[in-house]
Amino acid sequence: MSTSEKNALQYHEPNRHATWLELFFDLIFVVVVSKITHLLGHTHEGHLDEGVWWKFPLMFLPIWWIWVQHTLWANVYDRDNQPHRAATLLVMLQMIVLSTVLTTDWKEAYPLFNLCYFGLRITIAALYLSCRSSHTDHAGFATRRGVGMMIAALISLNSFFFPEPWRYLVLYLGIAIDILLPILQRRESRGPGAHKAHLVERMGLLIIILMGESVISLASGLGGVSWTGQTVTAGLTGAVMIGAAWWIYFDSYHRLEEDHGQPWGGFFLAYPHFFTCLGLSVMANVIYHAIHSDLDLHSYQMMALAGMLAFYLGKQTPYYVKFPFVRINIWVNSGVTLALCGAALFLPGKTAILVGLTVALLVYVAINFLTVIPKVEARLGSEES
Known about the structure:
Number of strands: 2
Order of helices and strands: HHEEHHHHHHHHHHHHH
Largest sheet: 2 strands, antiparallel
Structural class: mainly alpha
């Protein structure tokens, strides 16, 4: 293989798939996420740690955003050559270091967290700036993206100089600017379009690995309890819930990578996945606490409701954006399913609630199969013919 072939953009490969390093990167990401997810698994006398309800999503957001930034960069500019591999490994190393300070004690962990997070963002910004020649007609796009990341990272870094709680506001101000800049810059100057098949594959692989967290919660939960009717029922129901969530997410997932005359951008798929990932992480704990029955009922109800809402919001948004001809069906199907989830919260006991939530997921699978999927297949099938 010639040097020019080795340095060719992965973007231009007709049958592109995730590289081995990207799969490794996803694994490291999920290891970091699992540390955050476990914050919802620790109870004291039936209650969660104080403040965990707001600390959990606020810890989850910056980690998720690093994954999105690197994934969107790799989607367009990755050459899978030695410099790019080394940069990705550097990002992974920094994420491992970051995972060591992800605790509920923000005051003690904050300095190392902020410094390490700054390093992550600067590394990805440097990747964008180094790739300005990859798409010569989009050099300005890569420059603006890289410079914008650096400015946002510097804003967050300066939170060192503010007392609590203002330092956290400054930190997340920089993250919010970072998240909004790609949308604003896209309006100013359209960059290279996303590699559709690759991005859809990366998102799907991430969800598969996060579903593995639910399997781990299920296995670890059953491994530490006595086998009773309650624990067996909760374990079997949790297994069915994971399968139903997989079915809901992937049943027509392949259709998201198709154009069919519509403009296709990566952000409508990447951004809602924050809620999908958040929901799956919460659902893993919903299964765990149902098996152990170690959480007070009110907290369990709130956790179950939050997990379901986040999962459906993240899952439905890309379909709602891409397939406007089934939006009414999406509203109706989601409304029916969430109403069933709400009713399930009033069932007696955590195991009964878990059973009710799983029934609601199965109902969604059925009505989606009868309404949305036939419409999507019929419309897209006619366009293909």
